[in-house]
Amino acid sequence: MSKRGFDSGPMGGVGGEMGQTRKQRIDLADLRPGVGGNGGIAPVGGINPHTNRPYSSKYHDILAKRRNLPVYEFLDDLLAKVKKNQVVVVEGETGSGKTTQIPQFLVDAGYTRDGYCVACTQPRRVAAMSIAKRVSEEMDVTMGEEVGYTIRFEDCSGPKTVLKFLTDGMLLREAMFDPMLKKYKVIVLDEAHERTLATDVLMGLLKDVLQRRPDMKMVVMSATLDAEKFQKYFGDAPLLRVPGRMFKVEVFYTPEPERDYVQAAIRTALQIHLCEEPGDILVFLTGEEEIEDACRKIRDESANYTSTHGELAVYPLYSSLPPTQQQKIFSEAPGPQAPGAPPGRKVVVSTNIAETSLTIDGIVYVVDPGFSKQKIYNPRVRVESLLVSPISRASAQQRSGRAGRTRPGKCFRLYTEKSFQKDLQEQTYPEILRSQMSNVVLTLLKLGVEDLVHFDFMDPPAPETLARALEELNYLGAISDEGLITQAAKMVLSAPDFGCSNEILTIVSMLSVPQVFMRPKEAAKRADEAKAQFAHVDGDHLTLLNAYHAYKQHGGSKDWCWDNFINVRSMGSAENVRTQLERMLTRMEVPLLSPDFNAPDYYTRIKKALTAGGYMQVAHLQKTGQYLTVKDHQIVSIHPSSVLDMKPPWVLYADFVLTSKNYIRTVTAVGETKNELEACAKRLYQL
Ligand code: CDP
Ligand code: MG
């Protein structure tokens, strides 16, 4: 032990004094190193069919490694099963090659012929990006071309893309605009055992889509032993079981509970570095702040031992970390400082993402404090929050398994064995049972699912919970009496995507009150001039926003309203509505964002958010100079009260007014680009 000493460490002495700790051996699987592959699917030395270029030497290097992955032996079996069945369930130990290989096999087997795509979902953004990168290297193509990824706010795919990794949430979003998911031939739902809300909803939706699209295939992949449940849910789908190649992992528990798990984790990592054989370390912590703090402390402390015990390279891993930083976890551990000096090692301090989604080769030691951040719903106060909570026994098993990938390893659990047996629950509950139902209901409504009670959930929420959510949403004006989502709710909910929920809240509130701009006959000209101060060239929604801003700038002054022909009572109501809506959004954890007012795209973002939510009420300019409403094909004109003085090709409107003539009132020009207009039209067509 070093003179600085870690003798008070949680393990009572990792390394030399191991005998004093309670330990238990866990045989994760038979030791079966180095089982060879069964030949290749891609020709050696040949031409890459995706790029028509010769394969690079890197391709062949990786191919040799790929052939050693357990899943390789099951390639024929998998393809035969997929050919014969619409749904196939694959269960395989983490690291056996499911995620990186199976989607590729499907592409190589021809499922992307005729312009189709294979999609593979991931619950986490980091995994989607990092796996897309790895697979594009494996297939020897440029990322973003043949192989790509899509995560929220970032689409790295293109017209040539045949294989796309995307978060389950993104596929759900695509389903909102393309309910039959027409561009995909095969959907691979990965990490299904995680049972995220998005994956659960997708499973219900896809069950229906598969019935309507007999040509479509689905592969459900999971890491744990719950395969039977998935098989049953998908009408007795066949199972492909891929055995892992695991080495023994010795599991150690602390004799006493730890008071501060972060400190304990730091101490343990350092002790491993000082006392254990070479091999890399993986430490599980719960979030960015904790991880960065731990990394700093480990770095500082280990620097004292570089000359005697080798260099310790420390890498954090969490979802908000920039991709180039994330990629560093795959770097080689540092070598010896000088010939004959001790070799270095790396330690990765990660959130749950390293539990099953990402495999880091070379990990021999795992430090598991037993916690992760989880979504918890408190039905009493109806609040959903992300809390640091104990993991399940299934998670703990997964975590320890990460130590036995390349040779026998050790897992240090920073809790007592009794706690593992008694306190940890067997499995984590599916997210849907831990979520606020209002959000789930709104998601389903956005997907066009109206019969919520009969939606085929794998674990259905209680009907009373659903009913209560519907009632609440109706009360808040987010859904109509018929149970349909309102236009205002759609706008507000899509606003965070464009970073302007504050502005949309204001507009929606202003739309909910009676006429804001007064125009007494005797002072029409002065009233028009007053209104012109707020006018925005693109139309009335933005004009309402400007008026509200001006009102607030003048402290809501009655005199100011009077001077500017603004209805003071309406403004008061709008403020009131806004406060209520804001409260509701905070409760639903919808982020309240504003774009930079001086940014050139300030108004563009707002218009995009309006279009995203309001696509039901769009009209298209006709040759006659009138407009045709897209939803119910009415010929209309723009109401004379509108500030719009030209006739844009597409407009969004708030009201349909029937007088002697059909008018649309409160009108804004939308669709900046041709693409946007097409997307808009496509959505309408599908509704
Ligand atoms: O999905 P599953 O857990 O079955 O395994 P995978 O993610 O397909 O990983 C298979 C193997 O690919 C890993 O064991 C790593 O050896 C390798 N891999 C890698 O070297 N670099 C990556 N970025 C991803 C995977
Ligand atoms: Mg995987």
Automatic annotation (TrEMBL):
Q: Which PANTHER family match?
A: ATP-DEPENDENT RNA HELICASE, ATP-DEPENDENT RNA HELICASE DHX15 HOMOLOG
Task: State if Ligase is listed as a keyword.
Answer: no
Q: Where are the transmembrane segments?
A: none
Highest lineage ranks of the organism?
Answer: Eukaryota, Sar, Stramenopiles, Ochrophyta, Eustigmatophyceae
Keyword set includes ATP-binding = yes
The EC category is: hydrolase
Signal sequence bounds: none
Pfam families registered for this protein in UniProt: DEAD (PF00270), HA2_C (PF21010), Helicase_C (PF00271), OB_NTP_bind (PF07717)
**Catalyzed reaction equations:** ATP + H2O = ADP + phosphate + H(+)
**Which GO molecular function, any one, fits this protein according to its record?**
RNA binding
Q: What are the record keywords, sorted?
A: ATP-binding, Helicase, Hydrolase, mRNA processing, mRNA splicing, Nucleotide-binding
This protein is called what?
RNA helicase
User: In what residue span(s) does the Helicase C-terminal domain sit?
Assistant: 269-448
Q: Which PROSITE patterns match?
A: HELICASE_ATP_BIND_1 (PS51192), HELICASE_CTER (PS51194)
Task: Quote the EC number.
Answer: 3.6.4.13
Q: Which organism is it from?
A: Nannochloropsis salina CCMP1776
Q: Which GO terms describe its biological process?
A: mRNA processing; RNA splicing
Positions of the UniProt region annotated as Disordered: 1-20
Sequence ranges assigned to domain Helicase ATP-binding in this UniProt record: 79-243
